[in-house]
Structure formats: structure tokens, C-alpha cells
Amino acid sequence: MTDNTPVRSAAQPAPGDLRAGTSASPSSDAGGAPSSQARPRRGVDAQSVALVAVFTALLVAAAVVPGIPVGALGVPITLQTLAVMLTGLVLGPVRGGLAVLLYLLLGFVGLPVFSRGQSGLQVLSGPTAGYLVSFLVAAVVVGLAAQVVLRRTRRSLWVALLTAASFVVTIAVVHVLGVLGLMVNLKLPLSAAISADLPFLPGDLAKDVVAVVAAVAVHRAFSDVLVRPRA
């Protein structure tokens, strides 16, 4: 009598044997070594976007406040330098620079966000051109200084070091470029341009102190705004 019962091959796994047909674990490669997990890509930092937008609005608000006219050259004393220094000190070089750049672009495309409601590229041919250009450079440079000071020094030294850095940036960047703008656009000799610029210096240095005190308060309250914890 012939036995018609099918003979199961030794290589064929049993239906109930789940281990025989199981493929390699997703965490292992063909050689059995664990494969490296793909690192998640960083998207747009929502906090950075929000901070850039907020400080751009602060720069606009500082320009909207009526300035105090000084001399006959049409360069008023405004709160813009205070806002620019505060932006760099709080946000650092990249985000601070982006906030100032966005502010400048808004004005260049026609929005009345510069002092006395001015706008457009024609401001680059006026007496304030050097100061406007200096805003971007100043925010980046003082932002770099803030980044170094906050990451490498004790908190007790922050105010003194940031004040010194702000004074240097104000004089070497804002006022030097401002004087150059007066010389180029108004055809003033160096001595006359410096004389026209000097009345703004004491007020700008005082605004630096205010910006530093405010920025240090922000960093002490929110330590991850500029100095973020490392992963």
C-alpha cells in the first residue's frame, strides 16, 4: 500500500516555525553588525524665526519713534542704534544679522521703516547711508563678541566685557562708517564729517550701556537664547 502523505523537506520550514523564515532584524545589516540609525534632519528652527521677526519689529519701532534733529545735515538722534546693539547682543551674529538685514530690506523695497519715514534705495545717497550700512556690520560683530563672552567667561564679567565690546563696535563700526558716508555722499572733508558725527557719540555710548544691561538680563533669564546646551 502506497503512502501518499507528502514528505516535508528538511530545508522547508514548518508553518508554525516562525524563526526559520524570519529575515534579519532591521537593526542589523547583512553581516550581522548593527546598522547606524539615520540622524533626524534639522528643520527650520521655529524659535529662531520668531526671534528674528520680533527683533525686526523692534528695529522698525525704534525707527518710528521721532528722532531728535542735530545740526544741519539731517541726521537725527534715534533709538535705532540701541535696537541694533540689543539685537546683536541677544541673538548673536547669525540671527542678529538676519534681523537687521530683514529690516534693511523692508526699507529698501519701499516700506517707510527708516528714520523720518524714509524708504527706498535713495537713502543710500543721503547723509544716513553710512549709518544704515553700519547697522548690519555692528549687529554681526557685537553678536560675535556676545557669543564669545557668554560662552567663555563668568557671569560676573558679562556686563563689563559686553559694555567694552559694545563701545568698540559703536566707535569703530557705526561711527567710522557713518563718517565715511558723510564724506562720500555730502562731499565733506574728514574734519567736517567727524565734527558732524561727534554729537551722536555720547548718546550712542549711553544707549550701549542700556542695551548691555537689557541683554544680560535676557541671557540670565533665558540661558538657551544664545548659548544653547550641547547635545
TrEMBL record:
Protein location = Cell membrane
Q: Which Gene3D superfamilies match?
A: 1.10.1760.20
UniProt keyword annotations, A-Z: Cell membrane, Membrane, Transmembrane, Transmembrane helix, Transport
**Can you tell me where the transmembrane regions are?**
49-68, 74-91, 98-117, 129-150, 157-184
Q: How does it sit in the membrane?
A: Multi-pass membrane protein
Record InterPro entries: BioY (IPR003784)
Top-rank taxon of the source lineage equals Bacteria
Q: Where is this region: Disordered?
A: 1-41
Q: In this record, what's one Pfam family? A: BioY
Biased segments, Low complexity type: 20-38
Q: Does the keyword Acetylation apply?
A: no
Report the family membership. Belongs to the BioY family.
Protein name (record):
Biotin transporter
